[in-house]
Amino acid sequence: MSASASKKRHLLGEHPGPSTYVDDALYDRLLKISAQWSEAGLAVPASQAATVTALLNQECRLLDGGRFEEWLNLFVEHCIYWIPSDVVPQDPRREITWELQDRRRLEDRVARIRTGHAFSQIPPTRTRHCLSNIEIWAVGADELRVRTNLTIHTYRKGKQQTLPCMGGYVLQRQAEDDWLIELKQINLIDADQAQGNISFFL
Amino acid sequence: MSASASKKRHLLGEHPGPSTYVDDALYDRLLKISAQWSEAGLAVPASQAATVTALLNQECRLLDGGRFEEWLNLFVEHCIYWIPSDVVPQDPRREITWELQDRRRLEDRVARIRTGHAFSQIPPTRTRHCLSNIEIWAVGADELRVRTNLTIHTYRKGKQQTLPCMGGYVLQRQAEDDWLIELKQINLIDADQAQGNISFFL
Amino acid sequence: MSASASKKRHLLGEHPGPSTYVDDALYDRLLKISAQWSEAGLAVPASQAATVTALLNQECRLLDGGRFEEWLNLFVEHCIYWIPSDVVPQDPRREITWELQDRRRLEDRVARIRTGHAFSQIPPTRTRHCLSNIEIWAVGADELRVRTNLTIHTYRKGKQQTLPCMGGYVLQRQAEDDWLIELKQINLIDADQAQGNISFFL
Amino acid sequence: MSVTTLAEHKRNDIADKWGFVVHPSRIHRSVYTDGDIFKREMVNIFGSAWVFVGHESEIPNANDFITRRFGGRPVILTRDSTGEIHVLFNRCAHKGAKVCRADRGSTKMFVCPYHAWSYNLSGRSVSVPLRDAYRHHRSSRRYNLLQVPRVTSYRGFIFGTLNSEAPEIEAYLAGVRSPFDDWIDRYDGGAIVVTGTPRYRIAANWKFVTDNQGDGYHPAYSHLSLLSMTSQRYGADRDMSYFGGNVDESRMFVKCFDNGHFYVDQRPEMFADSAWAAQRPQPGREHYEAELQSRYGEQEAKRLLELAVGAGMNLNIFPNLLLIGNQIQLVDPIAVDKTDVWWFATSVADLPDEINTLRMRTQEDFPMFGEVDDVENFEACQEGLGIKEDEWVDCSRHLNSPTEVQEQDGIRALVTSDLTMRTFYREWQRLMRSEVRIDLSNQRQGKNG
Amino acid sequence: MSVTTLAEHKRNDIADKWGFVVHPSRIHRSVYTDGDIFKREMVNIFGSAWVFVGHESEIPNANDFITRRFGGRPVILTRDSTGEIHVLFNRCAHKGAKVCRADRGSTKMFVCPYHAWSYNLSGRSVSVPLRDAYRHHRSSRRYNLLQVPRVTSYRGFIFGTLNSEAPEIEAYLAGVRSPFDDWIDRYDGGAIVVTGTPRYRIAANWKFVTDNQGDGYHPAYSHLSLLSMTSQRYGADRDMSYFGGNVDESRMFVKCFDNGHFYVDQRPEMFADSAWAAQRPQPGREHYEAELQSRYGEQEAKRLLELAVGAGMNLNIFPNLLLIGNQIQLVDPIAVDKTDVWWFATSVADLPDEINTLRMRTQEDFPMFGEVDDVENFEACQEGLGIKEDEWVDCSRHLNSPTEVQEQDGIRALVTSDLTMRTFYREWQRLMRSEVRIDLSNQRQGKNG
Amino acid sequence: MSVTTLAEHKRNDIADKWGFVVHPSRIHRSVYTDGDIFKREMVNIFGSAWVFVGHESEIPNANDFITRRFGGRPVILTRDSTGEIHVLFNRCAHKGAKVCRADRGSTKMFVCPYHAWSYNLSGRSVSVPLRDAYRHHRSSRRYNLLQVPRVTSYRGFIFGTLNSEAPEIEAYLAGVRSPFDDWIDRYDGGAIVVTGTPRYRIAANWKFVTDNQGDGYHPAYSHLSLLSMTSQRYGADRDMSYFGGNVDESRMFVKCFDNGHFYVDQRPEMFADSAWAAQRPQPGREHYEAELQSRYGEQEAKRLLELAVGAGMNLNIFPNLLLIGNQIQLVDPIAVDKTDVWWFATSVADLPDEINTLRMRTQEDFPMFGEVDDVENFEACQEGLGIKEDEWVDCSRHLNSPTEVQEQDGIRALVTSDLTMRTFYREWQRLMRSEVRIDLSNQRQGKNG
Ligand code: FES
Ligand code: FES
Ligand code: FES
Ligand SMILES: [Fe+3]
Ligand SMILES: [Fe+3]
Ligand SMILES: [Fe+3]
Prior knowledge:
The complex is a heterohexamer, with 3 copies of chain A and 3 copies of chain D.
Chain A: H1 3-6, H2 24-36, H3 46-64, H4 68-72, E1 75-83, E2 99-101, H5 103-114, E3 126-138, E4 143-156, E5 159-175, E6 178-188
Parallel strand pairs in A: 1-6
Antiparallel strand pairs in A: 1-2, 3-4, 4-5, 5-6
Chain D: H1 6-13, H2 17-21, E1 22-23, E2 26-28, H3 30-33, H4 35-44, E3 51-55, E4 64-70, E5 73-79, E6 85-89, E7 104-106, E8 109-111, E9 118-120, E10 125-127, E11 150-154, E12 157-161, H5 169-173, H6 177-184, E13 192-194, E14 199-202, H7 207-213, H8 219-222, H9 224-234, E15 253-256, E16 262-265, H10 267-270, H11 275-278, H12 285-305, E17 313-317, E18 321-324, E19 327-335, E20 338-344, E21 346-348, H13 353-363, H14 365-384, E22 392-394, E23 405-406, E24 411-414, H15 419-433
Bound molecules: FE2/S2 (inorganic) cluster (FES) (3 copies) and fe (iii) ion (3 copies).
C-alpha cells in the first residue's frame, strides 16, 4: 500500500480551494500521453512492478468497496481522471468527454454520492475492476506509465454488464518506493457509442 | 504444482468418516476471515507469490477440465467451500448460503456428478475460471490469504454467462514451499439476486 | 519487446513463396501439443516469465490496435495459427477447423483486410485481448509453452461480446532472451457451437 | 395465421377455449407456452386468488419493508408504524415512478425521488410539495399509493388479493389448512423465522414448479443422481430411498382439496424410523450431534435432531405458495417462460442454536443436490413443448382410480397420482374462464380516514 | 384477451381512443408502454412532423456525411458536392442493403457493398454494374436511394419531414422561433459548432425526456444531490439554488406555443447576477479566468465568462429537439421502452479558445451530476407504469390556473405548470388521431432531373 | 394500427396476400421481416416440403444419433439398431421434456430424465415405469415419440417431410437431380464423408442465404476483397477472377427447375484449365503436391489435385439444402431475423489422405475469405429492409430475357439472372398460399407393429 496514500489529506465537504493546474500545458501533456499508450517502454524491474501492481490492485479494491475517499487518496493533489468520448481521444479543449475531472470535481462527484440523494447510484452500481495485460515502464526518474486492460464488470437493477477498457495510469514518485496516481485514463471499447448509467467510477 | 496435492488421498465412493471440524470456532473463524478481505496485508515475496499463483492457476485449470477429484486434492482435509447468499456475508449459522460445504459434502457433490445422472450437469457447464488482481499476504508463519477477482465465464445449452466474483482463498502450509487450500470463498457480484444453474463448481 | 520482432521481415503484397512446412510431422506435433495443455510443466524463472509476458502483452496490444503486420512479426517464419472447431481438438487433417493458417494464409488474411473492401471488417471488430492464468514452462532448451485463459471482449455494430478461450502459445528461442511465437492455438469455450462474425484475429 | 395443427385449429373455433385446453386427463401445451394466456393469468389467477407475498418474520418491526412482485406488479410489503401489514403498489401517484428503490429496509416513509411526493408505510400521502397547484383534485386520497385492497396474515404467512369478493383466507385454504397447520405447529409453538431467501431463475413456465410439487412419480428418476450417490456413499435406506421400487405401495400418499390446493405426505416413510439417522450428513453433523447429546442427553437430543430435518410434506397452496421440507417457496412468474422461485430458509425461535445451525446446512442439501435436476427438467419441458405438433401434457396417472378415497376434507390418492395436477388445473380453469375486472379507483376517492 | 382494468376495457370500446388516452389533466399509461402506440408514433409523429436530424456543423464540408435514425429509420445526413443537404434512406434500391456502414466520414459516393450499385450524396444513382439487364425499368430514378422529401436548415439546425403537406419550418416553429433565435443569437453572430455528440441509452419511453424538459417542478427534488453537494461545498446561492423553496414565486416561467413547442426560462434568476460567479467550478476555472482577465481586462473577461455557462433556457421543439443549457439534445426513440438521447456539445466560433475550453468542462457538469438522476427517474416511471391497475400519469399541475397569461405568441405560465406537457400532448393527440399515409413512390418515377 | 405505406395498406385489403408479396419482378420486404410470415413458413414450407436434415455419414453406425432443428422443432436424427434412419421429435410423450440432451452420440435408447420413460432409436416406447397407472390409454403407441412420418435418404442425404402427400424424393428433386448426381458422382464412386459441421449464426432472414446461392451477380462486388487480395498477391486469372468484367459473357450459367430448385454452374470457367493451379494456396499445398507427385506421378497427381478444390457448382435444393464448392450447407431458420447456416465439410473415402488433408484446408478458405462478406451483406439487408417506406426487393435481373433457354429439364439463363430467385419464390408462394394442417395423431393410435 502506498505510504503517501495512508495519510489522509482531504476531508470532503470543506470548501475546496481554487484549481489552477488545469491549463494548456496540462492539456498538451494529456494528449501526448494518450498517444503513447500504443507502445510500451522497457519494463520496470520485478520489484517495482510488484509495488505498482499492489497500488493498482488497491485502487480497484477500494472502488469495488465503495471507499471513494480512500480511493481519492491514491491520487496526487494535481490529478486527472479522464474518460474520452471517442475511440481515438481528441483534444478535450475542443471535444467533449464523458468525464475530465480535476481533483476538485472528483471530490464533487464523491460528495454528491455521499449526500444520500444521488438517485442514479441508489442502489449503487456494484463493480468488479479486473486488471490484465499490465505493462509498466518508466519515463524519467519519477514517473511511471502503466498500461492495462481494465475490464469492469458491473451489476445494477438486475442487469449485469461488462465494460472492456484500456486503463492507462501515470504514476508520480512520492518517495523511494512510493507512488501515487497522477492520471487515470479510461478508454472504453465503445467510447463513441451510447452509454447507459456510467455515473459510478470506472 | 503442490507436492501434497499430488498424493491422492481420497477415493470417492468409500464410506466417508464423520466430519467433526465444522464447529462454532470454525464458523467464527469464517466470519472473521470474510470481514478481512477488504484489506490486503503486506505482499509476500515474489518467489512465494509465484508458488501460490501456480497453485491457483492449477486449481482453475482442474475445474475447467472437469477434473474434480484432482481438484479436491488441492484442499486440506478440513476444508471449506463457501458461497454466501448475501453481498455482505452473514453468519452461516443464522442465514442460508448458496453453498457451505465441508470435505464430505464436496465429495458428495463430485460423486453425484460422477453417477452419470446429474441432469443439471448433463451436458456439463463449461467454465473458464479467470483470476486477476491477485493479492497475497501471510497471517502468521503457516497461513496465507489470497484475494482475487475471480471471473468465471460459462457456457451451457447455448447460453454464455459471466460470473464476476471476489475469490478469497486461505492456504495452509504443508511443507516449506508447499501449500494447500483450507478455504475457498466466492462472493458473487449478485449473491443476493436470483441465480440460474450454478450446480457446477465456482 | 522481442528483438527479432522489431526486424520487419515481411511486406505483404509481395508474391509469397511456397509453403512447405505444413506436413504430416507438423500435424502430428500440433495434435501432441494440443493434448498437453491440460498439464502445466515446471514454471520458468521469474525473469523469463517477465520476458514472455511482455511478448504476449505486446501481441494483444498489437491486435487490439489493428497493427496486423507488426503482429505477424511476432511469429516465426514457420508459424501456425489454429482455432479448432471442436472442444477437444481433433486431427485437422480429418476434421475442418475454424482456422488453421500457415504464415502465407495469415498474410492473405491481413492483405484482405488491407484491400479496404473486406466488408465483414468494415467497420472493424474492436477487440480487447485479456490474458489471465498465465502458465509458462520450458520444453527443452529452446521451446516454451504458455497456457493462458484468453478472454477476448469485442464490440461491433452495437453488439458487445465476450469470447472466453484457452490461449496456448508455443514460443521458439531466437536468441538468449528473445522469443517468437511458433503456434497460437485458441480453444473457444463454445468451439463446437454456432459462431457469429469471427473474421477478426482472435 | 400460424395455426399448425388440427387441435389448434379447432381451439380457435370453439366456444369454450378453457374447456379445451384443460381436459381431465391432459393439459394443452399452450397453457405453458402462450404469452397471451400468461398475460391473462396475471389478471385472472394472480388478480383473483389469494397470492402469497412473504412471511411476517421478514418484516419483524414497525417500519420494515421488502419489495416483491405480485403477479408481475412491483409491490412493497410493509409493516406500518402501527404494526399493520400492507402490500403497496410501488408506483408513485404523481407520474408513476417507483417510489422505493431498495430491496429491503426500514423507513418512516417513501419519498419519491422524482418530485418528492411522500408516503407513509400504510401508503397514505405524507406530503406533496407545493400542493396548492393541485386544488382541483377533490380528494386527498388522490395522493395515496394504490395498494392490494385485502391483505391478511395466516399465522405469519402474508397473503393478498385484488379480488374484493374473495372468501376469507380460512375458507380459501379449505382442507389444506389442516396440513398447513401441521407444518407450522411442528415445533410446539416455536415460531418460524425466515433466515434467507435465495432465489433461482428458471427458463420455464411457473406451473412446471407447481406441477412438480405434487408429483410423487418423479423422485426415483429425476433425482436418480442423488439417490445413487447416497446409496453408494452412505448405504441403502437413507433419505428418499423410499421413492424407489413401486412407490405406490409405500405408505406415502397425496391429498387434494378444494380451490386447487394439495399436498404430498412423505412422513409415513420418512419418519417411520429416525429421519435424522437417515439424513445425508450435513457439514458439522457429528460435532453438533455430540454437543446436543452432551447438553440435553440422548433422548432429548434425538427429539431435537428430528427437527433439523425436513417436514416430510410438500404443500401446494394455490397458486404460488409451496412448502417443501423446511422451506417455503414463493413461485414468482416473470414471463411465460421465465420464473423466479424463492426458497425461504427457516429457523425456529426457541430451538437450540445447534439445531438451527444444522437446519441451515440441511436446507442447503436438496436445492443443490436435487432441485437443480428438476429445474433442468422443467426447462427441458419448456423446450419440448415448443413443438406444435405434439400438443398434450399428460396428467392422467391413476385417473379415476378406485384407490382414490374421498375423505371428509379432500380426496386421498396414491402418491404418484396426477390427481394433484388435476386438482390444480380445475381451479385454474375456473378462474381463467371467468371475466375479471380489477377496479381500485375507489382508493383514490373520498377522504383519508 | 389481457384486458385488466375498467378503463382499459372502456378504451377498447370507445370510438375516440386518442381522446381517451390524452385527457387535459392526465395521460394514460399505455402512451408510454404500448408497443403498438409506439409503432404508430414512428409514422404519425415522426412521419408527419418536422424531425430534427443534426446540425450543419457536423457536416461542414461538401461530401461530408453522418448516419442517424429518423423515427427508427436508418438515414444518412449528407452534404452533397454542391453543398446541398440531404437525408437519405440508408437502404439500397436493389435488394435493400444498408449502403453506408460508417458512422461518419467524407466521400464522393456510397458504393453498396453487395452488388456495387453506387449513389452520390444527393441519393442519385451513379452507376449500376451491368445495367443492361434492367432495361425493363422505365425510369432511371428507379436506381436512386429514397430520401426524406423535405429537408431544411433553420439557422444550422437540420430538420426533415416525410409529410409533403407540412408547413414551412418558420410557420411550424410558430412562437418558439423567438426563444430559439435568442438561443442562437447569444454570441453576437458567433457561429455554433458541434463539438462531440455523446449519447445515452435509457430504458424508458422517449416522451419522459420531453416531459421532463418542461418540468420546472422536479429540479429541487430530482437534483437534490446536486443542490446539496453544491451548497455543502460551495455555499448557498449557487447555480440552480433558485429552484428551491416555492419556485413558483421566482421570476422563472414557462411559455407554450402552437404545434407542441414550449420553453422554460431560467434566465431571470440565473443571470440576475453573474451566472459565471454562481457556477459550480469547472476544471481549470481559475487558471483560464485569470488568463482571460489578463488578456482582455476585467470587464470584457466578465462578459466573455458569462458565455461559458449555460443559456438558461430549456426549449422543446416538437417532437425531438431540445435545447438545454449550451447543449442540443436529439431524442431518438428506439423502442417503446428504449431511447437514445444525444447530447450535442457546442463551441462558438470567434470566441476565445479559453472560453470554449471552459464551455467543454461546463457541459460535462450537468450530464454527470444532474441528468443521471433524471434518467434514473424516467426508468423508474417506465417500471412503475407497468402496473396496469394504476392507469394515469398526472399532468394537471396548475390546470386552468388564473396565473396563465395569454401573450401574443403563446401562453405564459408558472414555472412548475404542467402546461408544457399539456401543450405537447395536444399536438401529439392531433397527429395520432390523423390517418397518415407516406407515399414516396414518385421518387422512383420519371427522369433524374 | 401501424400501417405506413400505400402498398401495405393495400395488402391488408387484398384477397391474395401471397400474390401481392411475391411479384414476378420483386419481393415485398415483409417476406424477410414479418414474424407472422416466418411462423407460417415453419408450417407451410418446413412442414410441407422435403427438408434436409443431415448426412448419413454423420450417423454411420447403428445406434448413432445427432440432434438438429426441423423448421425450428428440436429433432433427433437417429440410425436405429436395424440401421434404419428416423427423425424423432425430441419431446417426451409424457409431459414434454426433451428426452435427448446431447448434441450427438451413440445409445441403445433415450431415457427421459424426468420420469424415465424410455424410447429406442426408432422412437418406440421401451418402458414406462409403473405403467399400470395408465391402463386407460388404449394404445401402446401412446407411449412412443412422435416422428417425422416420411424420411428418406437420397444417396446419403437425409430428407424428411411432415407432408403425407409429398411426392417421392426423386420426383421432388425434378431437374436438379441431375446436377445433384453430378456433385455426388465426382469421385468415381468415392463416398462422401462429412468431417465437421461448423455453424455460423447470422442476424438475417434465412432466405437471404438461398437468394445469394443463385446470385451470380454479386461475386465481383461482395467478394472484392478476396479478388483484390488474390490478384495482388498471386496474380491475375486465379480462382473466381472469371466473375470480373461482364460475367454474363462468360461460359457460366444458371439453370432453374420445378419445385423451387436451381443451380449455378461455374465449371465451364473454373475447370477450363486447371482449377487446382488457379486455387489460392492452402497451408501445406506445396508439400502435399510434391508428395502426391512422387507417389502417383505427375499426371495422376494432377487428376487427384483437381479433386481437392471445389466442385464449381452452387446447388439450391428447396428449401434448405445448398451445395457450394465441396461443402454441404443446411439453412436452419431460428427466427425471422436469425438463422444458423451449417457448413458440412466433406472428405472422400478412398481418396489419398493427402487429398483429404488439402480438401480440409481448401474448405477453410471461402468461409473466412468470402462468405463472411456475404453474411455482412445479408445482415445489412435485414437492417435496410426495416425501413417501411421502401418496400421492394428487386429480383428482376434479366426478367423475360430472350437469352433464357427452355431445356428439357429446366430453364437455362445467364449467370447473373435473377431467374433463380424467381424460381424459388414461385414455389414459396405456392406453398404459403396453401392451407396446411399437420396431423400426426395416428402415430399414437393402434398397435406398435
Ligand atoms: S413521479 Fe413521484 S413525485 Fe413525481
Ligand atoms: S443490394 Fe445494394 S447493390 Fe445489391
Ligand atoms: S416428461 Fe419424460 S418421462 Fe415424464
Ligand atoms: Fe423433485
Ligand atoms: Fe432535470
Ligand atoms: Fe458469395
